[in-house]
Amino acid sequence: MTIVIRKPCRCRVEPDAWVGKMTDQAQKPPAKPSIGANPPGPVPITSTTGSWLLQLARYGLAIVALVAAGVGGVVWWLARDIATENAYVVGNVTPISPEVAGNVVALFTDDNMVVKAGEPLLQIDPVPHQLAVEEARADYRQALKELEGAAITVRLTDQDRKAGYQAAEARRQEQEESLRASALEASARDNILNKEKETLQASRAEEPGLQALERNARDYLERFDSLAKSGDIPMQDRDNKDAAWKDSLARLNNLKSRIAALESQVLASDLDRKQALVRVEKERRSLAEAAAQVGRAQAALLQPDIAETSRSALKRKAELAHAKLELARLRLANTLVRAPMGGIVSKRTAQLGQTLIPGQPFLSITPLDLDNVWVVANLREDQLARTKVGQLVMVTLDSIPGQEFPCWVESLSGGTGAAFSLFPPDNATGNFTRIVQRLPVRLRFQDAENFQNRIRPGMSCKIRIDPDVTVRASGSGW
């Protein structure tokens, strides 16, 4: 972009030669009077002298008028622009402080040195931090071993508890089968006992009839024996009755023996039934114990979960140990303080052997690129009416005379300097005195690079805003 700077014309009026001659003649002293002449007196103004003075006055007025017109034109031209000397260069000054505490063992920079981003500034004693790294590494390895042991414990506990649960479940099933078998045996014994009791009852029911037959046969034998001895009947009849009696007696004795055997069998069957019932109760208790064992095995299945919880806790412990190790490594790396950006070192206060603490600045770096350097101009309120974002600004630095730097209006402050002062004015507290305020305006350089790195924060400058030229488009005026 071509910037046209209008300069006011300067006019000079040269007097004519004859006017100069008349001036020389007018400046000559009058001739001395001769002796005896009349005493000196006021020289009368002749017509020629009056005409010369009149011409001189006219030319003088013309010269004054031309000079006044030129000065007025210059003032008018300069009044079109917005200018101020209340401006200075501002930049991002970055204070550098250590991240770790320790003694300074090496210095790599000094005041006014130019550093690049990443270059070392100073070295803090790394030995304590190296020992902290070794300690954190040992804790981390120990945590890993504990975690590995916990993982093995989880696997073994899981397998053991599952095996125990399966064994308890198998025993419970076995006890259920034994209980069913014992219950069937007891039921069978009970049925056999009932049948034997029925047989005994039937046998006992036959005994009265056989006893009656035996008595009847014995009575017939006794009568026939008496008749046979008297000869009234033959002996054969008596023998028949004797055989009938013996047969009934044998059948009665046989019945009694069978009843006795049945009674013994009933007693034995009852004993077997009771034993079967005892076995049933025993198997039932064994089943209950097996069921309880299954319950305990089920509860034991939670132990792998508990072991897994312990393993998770150890895993968190290992992660914490790893984080501490990384933190120790970071602190060890931070013992070598490097420049976060390029610039000029200023206000270095660190010395060899000095103990630094975190957050305590020991030097500042001032970047000189134009992204971090700008101009702040404090404009009067009456100059803000025609000030807008994007207008062309010409800046002259006192340290670089004869050189103008094109800038543009980047932004305007949110308030005047008085609004952000320690004690803002309160016009309602007393007598009011009107004071013209100034508003800070930020100006950005249009050049890509800093001129020989000579534009530095804090320098005074003069600015001139051309309200008729806009170099940057903006959505809002302010």
**End-to-end distance, in Å?**
24 Å
Mean pLDDT: 83
Shape: rod-shaped
Total helices: the number is 5
Q: Find the structural class using helix and strand composition.
A: alpha+beta
* Contiguous runs where pLDDT drops below 50 for at least 5 residues: 1-47
Explain what the structure shows.
- The protein has 478 residues and is α+β, with helices and mostly antiparallel strands.
- Among the domains are: 94-126 and 333-364, RNA polymerase II/Efflux pump adaptor protein, barrel-sandwich hybrid domain (OB fold (Dihydrolipoamide Acetyltransferase, E2P), Beta Barrel), CATH 2.40.50; 129-310, Orthogonal Bundle (Helix Hairpins).
- It is 51% helix and 17% strand.
- The strands form three sheets. The protein has a six-stranded antiparallel barrel.
- Strand 11 and strand 12 form a beta hairpin.
- Helix 3 (127-230) packs antiparallel against helix 4 and helix 3 (127-230) packs antiparallel against helix 5.
- The longest helix has 104 residues, at 127-230.
List keywords for this structure.
single chain; 478 residues; alpha+beta; OB fold (Dihydrolipoamide Acetyltransferase, E2P); Helix Hairpins; six-stranded antiparallel β-barrel; four-stranded antiparallel β-sheet; 5 helices; 14 strands; disordered N terminus
How would you summarize this macromolecular structure in one to three sentences?
The protein has 478 residues and is α+β, with helices and mostly antiparallel strands. It has helices at 17-27, 47-80, 127-230, 235-300, 303-333, and strands at residues 82-91, 94-96, 102-107, 114-115, 120-124, 336-338, 343-346, 355-356, 363-366, 373-380, 391-397, 404-412, 438-445, 460-470. 51% of the residues lie in helices and 17% in strands.
